[in-house]
């Protein structure tokens, strides 16, 4: 299970506008609350891009709807290359598989630019959880089905699927507690609201020193991507990126095996 981030711009701008691009700040929409892995990656990338190419970015958090709110906002934005989406695996790979009538399509509405980052997902537990390792968690969950809860970034999020995958693989029943983003979900075990959580490494790393311990099992790393509407100045991403079908909020994709920052 991967967490992919990528970048894309709208297509259709004239050559002259492309030469003058950008002449105003570029908005980068993030489909989750501040502090999570996608938000953190977007801010690190924006800062690096400002230092490298002197472009100014404005990060806008549009959490909710498992990424639908931010993704549709970018889809409907003016095709001028000034609205990007920092998307991850969920918006363009998970959502179409889980939900009917998804209002956007990757190939129709977005142009992927590049892979941005690739980070692992972790199962975590509070330091005072009633189990000390994965085996004890499974034993307790089997003894009391549905009694152990875990936090995630929201219903249908890749974190949610990671928790359900763990339960299915171990033959146990866990209680899912959805939050609006990775950062609020990471705070769940810290505040003792849930004994465990499924989250990405960047969202959870800062919490380890305040009472949370990383669990033993780990899913394959997730990935993330940035994209934009398919009508503006852009560079297309790799063929493998297109095949993966995993993109960022503004419509993007990422090759799960690419290195962080590839193509920038």
What does this structure look like?
- This protein is of the alpha/beta class.
- The protein has two domains: 4-119 and 221-244, Bordetella uptake gene, domain 1 (D-Maltodextrin-Binding Protein, domain 2, 3-Layer(aba) Sandwich); 121-219, Periplasmic binding protein-like II (D-Maltodextrin-Binding Protein, domain 2).
- The chain has helices spanning 15-20, 37-53, 68-75, 89-98, 106-109, 134-143, 158-170, 182-190, 201-205, 239-244; strands at residues 4-7, 26-30, 57-61, 83-88, 110-118, 121-126, 149-152, 175-178, 196-200, 212-213, 218-219, 223-229.
- The strands form two sheets. It has a six-stranded mixed sheet, sandwiched between helices. Strands 6, 7, 8, 9, 10 and 11 form a six-stranded mixed sheet that branches.
- The longest helix is centred in the N-terminal third of the chain and has 17 residues, at 37-53.
- The protein is elongated and about 65 Å long.
Features:
33% helix, six-stranded mixed beta sheet, 2 domains, D-Maltodextrin-Binding Protein, domain 2, disordered C terminus, alpha/beta, 22% strand, 264 residues, elongated
Number of helices: 10
Q: What are the segments in which pLDDT stays under 50 over at least 5 consecutive residues?
A: 10-16, 206-224, 229-264
Mean pLDDT: 74
Number of strands: 12
- Kindly state the percentage of residues in helix: 25-40%
Sheet having the most strands: 6 strands, mixed
In angstroms, what separates the terminal alpha carbons? 24 Å
Shape: elongated
What is the CATH superfamily of the largest domain?
A: Bordetella uptake gene, domain 1
Order of strands, main sheet, comes to 1-5-12-4-2-3
What structural class is derived from the secondary structure elements?
alpha/beta
CATH topology of the largest domain: D-Maltodextrin-Binding Protein, domain 2
Q: What is the total domain count? A: 2
């Amino acid at each position: 299970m991967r967490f992919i981030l990528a970048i894309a711009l709208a297509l259709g701008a004239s050559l002259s506008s492309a030469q003058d691009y950008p002449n105003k700040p570029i908005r980068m929409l993030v489909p989750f609350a501040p502090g999570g892995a996608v938000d953190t990656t977007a801010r690190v990338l924006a800062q690096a891009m400002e230092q490298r190419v002197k472009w100014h970015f404005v990060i806008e958090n549009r959490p909710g709807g498992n990424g639908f709110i931010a993704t549709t906002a970018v889809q409907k934005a003016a095709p001028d290359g000034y609205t990007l989406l920092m998307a991850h695996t969920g918006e363009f790979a998970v959502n179409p598989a889980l939900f009917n009538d998804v209002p956007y399509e990757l190939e129709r509405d977005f142009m992927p630019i590049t892979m941005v980052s690739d980070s692992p997902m972790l199962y975590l537990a509070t330091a005072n959880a009633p189990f000390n390792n994965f085996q004890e968690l499974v034993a307790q969950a089997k003894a009391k089905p549905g009694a152990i809860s875990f936090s995630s970034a929201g219903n249908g999020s890749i974190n949610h699927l990671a928790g359900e995958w763990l339960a299915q693989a171990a033959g146990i029943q866990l209680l899912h507690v959805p939050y609006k983003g990775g950062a609020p979900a990471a705070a769940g075990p810290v505040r003792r609201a849930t004994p465990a959580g499924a989250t990405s490494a960047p969202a959870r790393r800062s919490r380890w020193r305040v009472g949370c311990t990383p669990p033993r099992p780990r899913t394959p790393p997730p990935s993330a991507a940035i994209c934009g509407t398919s009508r503006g100045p852009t560079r297309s991403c790799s063929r493998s990126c297109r095949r993966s079908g995993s993109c960022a909020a503004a419509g993007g994709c990422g090759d799960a095996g690419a290195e962080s920052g590839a193509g920038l």
